[in-house]
Amino acid sequence: MCGPPPSPPRSRPPAHARSASLLRALARGRAEACGGRGAALTLPGMRAGSAAAAAAASASPATGVCMKTPGGWRRGIRRASREQSPAPAAPSRAGCCGSASLCQHPILSRLTNNSRIVGLLAQLEKINTESTESDNARYVTSKILHLAQSQEKMKREMTAKGSTGMEVLLSTLENTKDLQTTLNILSILVELVSAGGGRRASFLVAKGGSQILLQLLTNTSKEAPLNEELMVQIHSILAKIGPKDKKFGVKARVNGALNITLSLVKQNLQNLRLVLPCLQLLRVYSANSVNSVSLGKNGVVELLFKVIGPFSKKNSSVMKVALDTLAALLKSKTNARRAVDRGYVQVLLTIYVDWHRHDNRHRNMLIRKGILQSLKSVTNIKLGRKAFIDANGMKILYNTSQECLAVRTLDPLVNTSSLIMRKCFPKNRLPLPTIKSSFQFQLPVIPMTGPVAQLYSLPPEVDDVVDESDDNDDVDLEAENETENEDDEQNFKNDDIETDINKLKPQQVPGRTIEELKMYEHLFPELVDDFQEYDLISKEPKPFIFEGKVRCPIVVPTAGEEASANPGSLRKGVVTKANMSSKGDEHDKKTAFMELAKEDTPDNNERLLQQQLGDQNRTISSAHGLNNDIVKALDRITLQNIPSQTALGCTASMKKDYSLPLTVLTCTKACPHMAACGSALFEARTVQLGKLCCTGVETEDDEDTESTSSVEQTSVEVSDGPTLHDSDLYIEIVKNTKSVPEYSEVAYPDYFGHIPPPFKEPILERPYGVQRTKIAQDIERLIHQSDVIDRVVYDLDNPNYAILEEGDILKFNSKFESGNLRKVIQIRKNEYDLILNSDINSNHYHQWFYFEVSGMRPGVAYRFNIINCEKSNSQFNYGMQPLMYSVQEALNARPWWVRIGTDICYYKNHFSRSSAAAGGQKGKSYYTITFTVNFPHKDDVCYFAYHYPYTYSTLQMHLQKLESAHNPQQIYFRKDVLCETLSGNSCPLVTITAMPESNYYEHICQFRNRPYIFLSARVHPGETNASWVMKGTLEYLMSNNPTAQSLRESYIFKIVPMLNPDGVINGNHRCSLSGEDLNRQWQSPNPDLHPTIFHAKGLLQYLAAVKRLPLVYCDYHGHSRKKNVFMYGCSIKETVWHTNDNASSCDVVEDVGYRTLPKILSNIAPAFCMSSCSFVVEKSKESTARVVVWREIGVQRSYTMESTLCGCDQGKYKGLQIGTRELEEMGAKFCVGLLRLKRLTSPLEYNLPSSLLDFENDLIESNCKVTSPTTYVLDEDEPRFLEEVDYSAESNDELDIELAENAGDYESSAQEEVLSDSELSRTYLP
């Protein structure tokens, strides 16, 4: 025996030892049979250098297995009993090259089938090294081919990691001169790469296969005559492995393979078997733009038009490949121009119509799709689009696509046709005299550089709406740069991430001297006040008593959370107060305009709610002091002719005489919260609105039954009533608000107030085919131009436009605070194009809208198209709806904004942006928000808004109500003016904390040493949700909730609730009156242009100078492209980690305290999503509040809190659109989170001894050496849009795009090509 004696079962040698024994046996047997000559053998899975391999190598000086006869040694085993003599040297299917001792070896019976392919490969390698006769190589390769064709396992073994089989085959292919051997190896390679996906093709490329095959192609082309079979095999393999080789285009060009393949097609057009793989390889060549141009010069475009043709049942496979190749070639502008010059656009349209008519069973959809793809490529250039229009392509594709709508499987044809038509739709200019705002404001200082400076430098005669760049003239061939489609092994790299650790490290920079900062001392009286003039004796907190008009506690909604256990808690649901039990006649008369149900039983509450919701059209009781005729008599409330000394009511001027009878409505009900109403409310053409009685909600004082509960209780009381709303006060404030257009009108929703509706509003499910239907309707405008009315019905730029009194035309208005609507054009009877106003002193930022509509009829579907939006995508594509407020509904006790609209989508339109409007970029288009509305009432007055409006006057009203209602014995509340804005409005600064328990030294000291929390909001006017979150924060801080009292005792809150009052007042979306994004000015704010930022930063610098750094800074924002609420913070370590420099990130030592608050909020706030948070610092955000406060001021916990404009896709509110209730709850939960943070950051007891009062402050200062930045990469404070983009919205991104730039196109992958519109919705919509 050759091996060691058997071991006991428990001490059986390991597998590698058994393998070594086996190899030794094989080696000895071979040595006996073949005289010590043979090739070394490595079994699959045996790594070089392993124990088994070493044993095999060391068995004898000439180890190996005799494999002259493939499979001979296995047959020798079977014949071991016959003691045959050695087989002859010549190849024989029956011979055995082993000796009797080898064949009789019992261990060989354990060998698996793998040894057969390994043996064959070993023999092939031996043939290569010894230049053995070709018949042996031919025989061995034929056996390997047989195994590859019959056994999938053999293919896996040959392409397994560590296998050397591929190198052996390629080496043989490179060296052999035998035609049959070459064909055998090529057939083996075809078998290997034809299955197993792209992994095997990549494996072949990694082994150098593409270069060897290209060289073989070149060598073979020089032989005469050409071997057709050889050329078919070579082209087939190259077509499969070419896409896996990043440098294949360069290799093919260098080897001269392009012209070889092209010549083969030219010479063998009738030989379909050869033409097919050649065309496939031409398609791969064309992926390289330089190759594509080179092929075009040599006539490939003309050649392909000889292959494709009208409908035929024959040669469909060649037709399909030819069209795919043509589509790839036409992505080169040079080739596309050549095709246009030869009239091929008309040819393609003719062929497409022919296939469309004859392919009745839709069996050739791929061919029809290929024709459309070729049209799509050729129309990337202006000449192609013009040729398409001249050939009547719009009408042809429109008609054919409409005929395809009935068959779902033809959706790819409809979608591609839609894409081509939208791209070829002639670019129109916006129907505006200028893209600059309709309103002008002269700046005190003109910036030297930047977009505002460019705006002011434009001559007045320049047409800035459109310019020559919009058509992107085509470039010549020489301008086409070589793009080799190389990837540099990087899938994605964000160059915006800051990688310089020295720049990331916070470096407290005073910026201004101590003397300069002393101007802010008067805004921090809490640091010096000794409270000696206050009567602070009791150490027990006094009960919370409202001394103002509002007698109910100021509380914050919890968005569906359970109310506290207080039996007197307010129930949810808004109803009209009916027969309530009274204790006297005076109490009976307290009938409110809007009131909360006080019944404790849910059943009774639900009954009343259903009764209220069910009676949609009833007339309001005269007790309300109003009737529905007022809606007909008023177009809007105005501020004209209001005596300044009266606050008893407001007047409204009528635009027209409704011929209503003279009526006198008297309000006889007592209003405990308001001044007496005017007696004559309606006279002739002048309407005087009396007070909407009891706009405040009368509630019984709640007993605090939770006073013994933990101060960390997180329950927040529910209040659906506008407890802080006072219509008269609002009017008085509006009269003092300064706007650039000098508004004199008030919108009804701002006057009446808003309360959250008592029902949930789910995220809208997108219906099938809505987007392409809307696009088709737009295309109809071009095809059927006579159907377009094109009538201007509203125009801010032309105040003298004719106001038509026709009954079927809607009337529009936006001349009120925060309003934004510039122009309205009636397109069809019930369809209107709306154009938004630019931000003042800017020429873009169109997204926020807020306007009034009247004159509608019920039961009619009105379509509204806002046609000059700029963002590349929107949550309107993912279930968000615009908001509507109906005055009729408000008078029917339903005064709330509701999500409304159907057939909503957001897509790129045919209106072009000039380079001036696109920040220097050329060829950009605007986007359309389209939605359809059915109005519930006739001649109603309705308002539409991008999000829940929250005006500057509303903020001032709320602050005044909070100030008048608070208990000065319990709450320290101050409202100061931080500064004046450019237009002269005051920017409020609010300070909130708890009064000291007494004026004793210990309590005063504790008061002064409370850590600061600095909050700000509404730097971007269009992000109104930030103000609603801030409202929730303010109301909670001023409430009598025990947690709120604990919070006030823990911190001093400095709050700037509106950083951009001018932008909010004037209806801007993003900028202030300076025309600049204020959240990009924090590094170097100009006191003349950015006063609110300059002084807000000054406050923080002052706190840093006096060693009182805030524990937390948070700037409230809104987010238009993501769902949920989330935060952005700043971290050096996480920023470095995102640069893939793991070694550097490991060296960074950082306090992870910046993650504490977001983590707390994710646990207590149902709308908050921790997974959406990011703590990466980016270069483009270095001048934002969050980064500057973190880096320059030194606040570790510096955040931006983003609230969605749409809704939530996780947690309690999953699938629901967000409302003011949820936003206010988020503001309240943020406060609760701060109290939790206090507990987590302080190991001491909650009531700190006076000797340790500075502990929290020391903690802040010790932790302020850390970093946390914002992570947005768009042109706004927004991160990348993480949801899948609707390709229809991005389909027409650039006019002239090359192959490498088409990754984001509508049908950029095979998966997208087969998705229907409904499937796209199901795939990408949440």
TrEMBL record:
Stretch list, region Disordered: 63-92, 463-507, 699-720, 1305-1326
GO molecular function ontology, one term from the record: carboxypeptidase activity
Biased composition (Low complexity): 707-720
Record EC number: 3.4.17.24
Record has Glycoprotein as a keyword: no
Catalytic activity: C-terminal L-alpha-aminoacyl-L-glutamyl-L-glutamyl-[tubulin] + H2O = C-terminal L-alpha-aminoacyl-L-glutamyl-[tubulin] + L-glutamate; (L-glutamyl)(n+1)-gamma-L-glutamyl-L-glutamyl-[protein] + H2O = (L-glutamyl)(n)-gamma-L-glutamyl-L-glutamyl-[protein] + L-glutamate
Domain (Peptidase M14): residue spans on this chain: 948-1238
Compartments it resides in: Cytoplasm, Cytosol; Mitochondrion; Nucleus
PANTHER family in the record: CYTOSOLIC CARBOXYPEPTIDASE, CYTOSOLIC CARBOXYPEPTIDASE 1
Family stated for the protein in its record: Belongs to the peptidase M14 family.
Record keywords, A-Z: Carboxypeptidase, Cytoplasm, Hydrolase, Metal-binding, Metalloprotease, Mitochondrion, Nucleus, Protease, Zinc
Residue stretches of biased makeup (Acidic residues): 463-489
Gene expressing this chain: AGTPBP1
Active site residues per record: 1202
Keyword Protease: yes
Basic and acidic residues: bias regions: 490-503
PROSITE patterns (alphabetical): PEPTIDASE_M14
Domain of life: Eukaryota
Name the record gives this protein: Cytosolic carboxypeptidase 1
